What does this fold into?
Amino acid sequence: MLEALIDIDRWLLLSVNGSSSLYYDGVVKVLTTATTWIPLYIALFYLVMKNNNSVGRIAFIVLCAGLCYLFAGAVDDGFVKPLVARWRPTHDPVIGWQVDVVNGYRGGNYGFFSAHACNTFSIAIFFSLLVRSRLLTVAMVTWSLVNCWTRLYLGVHFPGDILCGLLWGGIVGTSVYFFYSYIHRRYFTNIQYISSHFTATGYQDSDIDVVVAVLVFTLTYALLRGCMMLYV
It folds into this structure.
């Protein structure tokens, strides 16, 4: 049964991995680079800073976002990957030679589960629960799924790696939010907002629009950068 699932995972990966387009190669290379998303992280910090009225509250939210990365990516890279020791597709002895790689990038030896998937999804879930905005939730989940797609395109993760990463990221993001909610109720003043300009947790819609705009501009930058890389 397990071997059948592994074979299906290999087949699915080869079905979606890579393309013959140098343009898409360039776009994916930009999207999968961590520094590409620094403006989004700054925009999220702006959202938190603008909508919380104390340094302590701001610092606590930043701490919780850090915990998402710690319990998602650090657990994955530090414990799960070396213990499970599942080859990345690019190193898989069965299909490694069939995987379409970009600029020779093959990643480390082991790929279960995807740190990109669990890191981004934990942050997406945490901020979705924190802010309670449908627009922000769609934007953040889209951001996470775009990162997941790049890992499949590059052939450095199987679909199963991505799904398990999303599952773990969802558990971490939700758990960290429950921790935040518990501490927030005990030590911070809870204000209920009833307004068409604020979410239920007090985040202003116009500030959420800033985060979404930064995400859209970053995606646009990646598309344009892909064109520029054709001539480099």
Summary: DSSP finds eight helices and no strands in the chain. The chain has a mean pLDDT of 91. Helices lie at 2-16, 22-31, 38-50, 55-84, 115-131, 134-153, 159-187, 205-229. The CA atoms of residues 73 and 115 lie 5 Å apart.
